[in-house]
Amino acid sequence: MGKQLKRYGWLGLLASVLVTGCDDAPSANRHEDTCAEPMSLRVVVMSSDGAYIQGASVTATNLESNVSITGVTDDRGLTTAINETLAPSPIRVVATAGSHVTLAERVEWTCDACHCTPVPDTVTLKLQD
């Protein structure tokens, strides 16, 4: 009986290892869909004296379709709300905070089979006094 327990004990251990590989836990060998999440443009909004502006409204507009996305900056003056759903045409990005507005920046997109990446990938907009 002791030998049977040892034999089945090893089989049980082997079975549990094999079954563990079927769960939904992260694994380096699993295929991840890297195309699922859209690529974002990082937009930082600053005052004319270099302070980060929280709560600034950032709008990007596709220059061909006129479709827009608007985001709001966080406490670091950053928003990543602008994404590749506006690609592949160039976009115009501008920010406002109260009565202050930034100059517009133009961003292009470089596209492959999976994503369109903004060029440049980060834009810093400074509010005009």
Average pLDDT rating = 85
Low-confidence stretches: 17-23
Helix-strand pattern = HEEEEEEEEE
Query: What proportion of the residues is helical, as a percent range?
Result: 10-25%
What structural class results from the helix and strand content? alpha+beta
Give the assembly state of these chains. single chain
Distance between the termini: 87 Å
Count the beta strands: 9
**Biggest sheet descriptor:** 6 strands, antiparallel
What overall form do the CA principal axes indicate? globular
**How large a portion of the residues is in β-strands, by DSSP E?**
25-35%
Overview features:
6-stranded antiparallel sheet; single chain; 129 residues; 9 strands; alpha+beta; globular; 3-stranded mixed sheet; 33% strand
Structural features, described:
The strands form two sheets. Strands 2, 3, 5, 6, 7 and 8 form a six-stranded antiparallel β-sheet that branches. A three-stranded mixed β-sheet has the order 4-1-9, with no helix packed on it. The protein is globular, with a radius of gyration of 25 Å. The protein has 129 residues and is of the alpha+beta class. A hairpin with a 2-residue loop joins strand 5 and strand 6 (100-101). It contains one helix and nine strands; from the N terminus they run αβββββββββ. The protein starts with a helix and ends with a strand.
